[in-house]
């Protein structure tokens, strides 16, 4: 299944418009322009992936400043429902992605009910759109994480090297989810579980296609960065009064940095759920990857060889990769136009 087949109609139109602006019929050769272009595309894709979460967070901030506390919970729930429907109706999210977002919603709401009654955090009283004392908008906050995860997987055409076996990932994710409940009555196993996550993903590398370049990043680093940004968003949400931790009961203060560890562990659950929409394939559940560096080395001409790398026929994964361009250097304006046209057809921005 190609990236384009998973994109929405709105994203197709954005992709065509972006190519006209970024490519302008030729490839950038100056290093500064290449770096700036890749940086801007990376930021734009990240912002696009965060659409639902950013809109929900902005709604919380506006409601905090303008809406009475007695009706704030219900208003946030209605707003979250409308945002989710809008994402689907206006082509910002696919039905396939909505399934995993709803799964995040259910998993998150169950945990919210338990954690709230255990005293981990509290919500403002009031409202009718609640379940066992927890406002229904709380589940949409987990849905926002799910929305980001499935969209970023598609927008950046993520591929993985040395991906762990799927059954191991599911077992660790289940243990992490269970520990969120069990640590209130038995020993907290978050640190051993954190060590298990590090061991599980220690050798896993993520390949991120931005515009023309493919970046490589350890999955643990990517999960840590996402956890950090969720923690920053959590600070905004608690300031807006969406919920409060015990330390914030008297007056608001920043959320303890130790919560980053909890969000990091939640990333493992998120990855396990996202594979429901984007299942890993290959031996042991691994996604087949064609690392650019390794492929480049295999195509490099050996000294004294009778034929050049450009004359060799690609084999294996290199021949099957629909996004890969011919590695021969273009000569002249016509070659540049052909290569640019091939890139636009085969490598959608998302």
List the helices and strands and how they pair.
Blueprint: H1 3-6, H2 9-22, H3 31-49, H4 51-66, H5 69-89, H6 95-117, E1 130-131, E2 134-135, H7 137-155, E3 159-161, H8 166-182, H9 190-201, E4 205-209, E5 214-218, H10 219-239, H11 259-274, H12 292-299, H13 317-320, H14 332-346
Antiparallel strand pairs: 1-2, 3-4, 4-5
Helix pairs in contact: 3-7, 4-5, 4-7, 6-7, 7-11, 8-9, 8-11, 9-11, 10-11
- One letter per element, helices H and strands E, the order comes to HHHHHHEEHEHHEEHHHHH
Low-pLDDT ranges:
1-6, 281-350
Q: Describe the biggest sheet? A: 3 strands, antiparallel
Which range best describes the helical content: under 10%, 10-25%, 25-40%, 40-55%, 55-70% or over 70%?
A: 55-70%
Structural class: mainly alpha
- Tell me, rounded to a whole number, the average pLDDT: 76
Shape: globular
Task: Report strand %.
Answer: under 5%
Q: What is the CA-atom radius of gyration, in angstroms?
A: 23 Å
What's the helix count? 14
Q: Which strands sit side by side, in order, in the main sheet? A: 3-4-5
N- and C-termini, Cα separation: 14 Å
- Record field, number of beta strands: 5
């Amino acid at each position: 299944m190609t990236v384009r087949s998973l994109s929405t109609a709105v994203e197709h139109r954005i992709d065509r418009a972006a190519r006209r602006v970024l490519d302008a019929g030729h490839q950038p050769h100056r290093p500064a322009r290449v770096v700036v272009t890749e940086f801007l595309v990376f930021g734009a894709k990240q912002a696009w992936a965060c659409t639902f979460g950013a809109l929900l967070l902005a709604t919380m901030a506006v409601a905090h400043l303008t809406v009475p506390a007695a009706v704030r919970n219900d208003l946030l729930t209605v707003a979250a429902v409308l945002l989710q429907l809008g994402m689907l109706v206006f082509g910002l999210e696919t039905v396939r992605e909505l399934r995993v977002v709803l799964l995040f919603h259910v998993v998150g709401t169950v945990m919210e009910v338990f954690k709230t009654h255990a005293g981990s955090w509290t919500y403002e009283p009031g409202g009718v759109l609640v379940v066992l004392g927890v406002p229904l908008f709380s589940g949409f906050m987990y849905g926002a994480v799910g929305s980001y995860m499935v969209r970023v997987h598609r927008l950046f055409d993520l591929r993985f090297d040395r991906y762990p076996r799927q059954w191991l990932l599911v077992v660790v994710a289940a243990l992490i989810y269970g520990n969120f409940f069990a640590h209130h009555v038995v020993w907290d196993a978050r640190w051993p579980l954190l060590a298990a996550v590090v061991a599980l993903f220690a050798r896993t590398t993520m390949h991120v296609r931005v515009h023309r370049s493919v970046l490589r990043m350890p999955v643990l680093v990517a999960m840590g960065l996402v956890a950090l940004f969720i923690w920053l968003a959590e600070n905004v949400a608690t300031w807006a009064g969406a919920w409060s931790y015990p330390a914030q009961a008297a007056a608001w203060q920043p959320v303890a940095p130790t919560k980053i560890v909890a969000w990091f562990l939640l990333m493992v659950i998120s990855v396990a759920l996202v594979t429901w929409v984007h299942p890993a394939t290959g031996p042991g559940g691994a996604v087949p990857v064609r690392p650019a560096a390794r492929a480049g080395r295999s195509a490099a001409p050996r000294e004294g060889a009778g034929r050049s790398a450009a004359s060799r026929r690609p084999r294996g994964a290199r021949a099957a990769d629909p996004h890969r361009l011919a590695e021969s250097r273009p000569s002249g304006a016509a070659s540049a136009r052909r290569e640019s046209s091939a890139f636009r057809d085969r490598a959608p921005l998302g």
